[in-house]
């Protein structure tokens, strides 16, 4: 029992000593403050701040710039600016490299009717446009725009054809397809023709939607003008593709 008591006392003493070393570690790494060694005064894009060792006045770091994630690691770059937080990069394995990232990862609409990825991106642009302000805490409203229209094509009878259409807007538009046939009839797609498939999905970018029409077998009955319609609450846009065939019907 005596030996066990001595061992417990030794452990307690060791823990106290370790805590003392730990509490002194930041000061040891930072060293004594010598203001004569501080970097020269400069015009700061962001506001000024005292460095992580509490010694020198430095410029706050901007979006995407290197920063000091751990004050105890000493001063290398400086603290981040307004609306920014210093985050260690996750795309580099076993790295302590950190950059300033926006605290709020949300799109905002500027007074210039441009959608900015975050508030921080808008503030960066405001350095160039001093009158730039936040118009709303969401993407800017916009009518649909066809970013990638379907392409006109001539295909061999019996061949396969895929048409695609990408539209962008906010609110995100919906896409629909129509076929204007040579005889003047209009067919909304999809219909009961099992040889024509329609697919819609979101993306590939923010506020974008993509639609496809796949013609399993080109015939004289499914050629004509294919129309991609994009629509949201603010308006509509459309794009067309003329599809014709090569060859004779009896070649099928």
UniProtKB/TrEMBL annotation:
It is found in: Secreted. One of its GO terms (cellular component) is extracellular region. Its main location: secreted. GO terms for molecular function: insulin-like growth factor binding. The keyword rRNA processing does not apply. Keywords: Disulfide bond, Immunoglobulin domain, Secreted, Signal. It comes from the Eukaryota. Residues 144-244 form the Ig-like domain. InterPro entries: Growth_fac_rcpt_cys_sf, Ig-like_dom, Ig-like_dom_sf, Ig-like_fold, Ig_sub, Ig_sub2, IGFBP-like, IGFBP_rP_mac25. SUPFAM superfamilies: Growth factor receptor domain (SSF57184), Immunoglobulin (SSF48726), Kazal-type serine protease inhibitors (SSF100895). GO terms for biological process: regulation of cell growth; regulation of signal transduction. Residues 74-142 form the Kazal-like domain. Residues 1-23 form the signal peptide. Residues 26-103 form the IGFBP N-terminal domain. This is Insulin-like growth factor-binding protein-related protein 1. It comes from Hyalella azteca (Amphipod). The lineage of its organism: Eukaryota, Metazoa, Ecdysozoa, Arthropoda, Crustacea. The gene is LOC108668877.
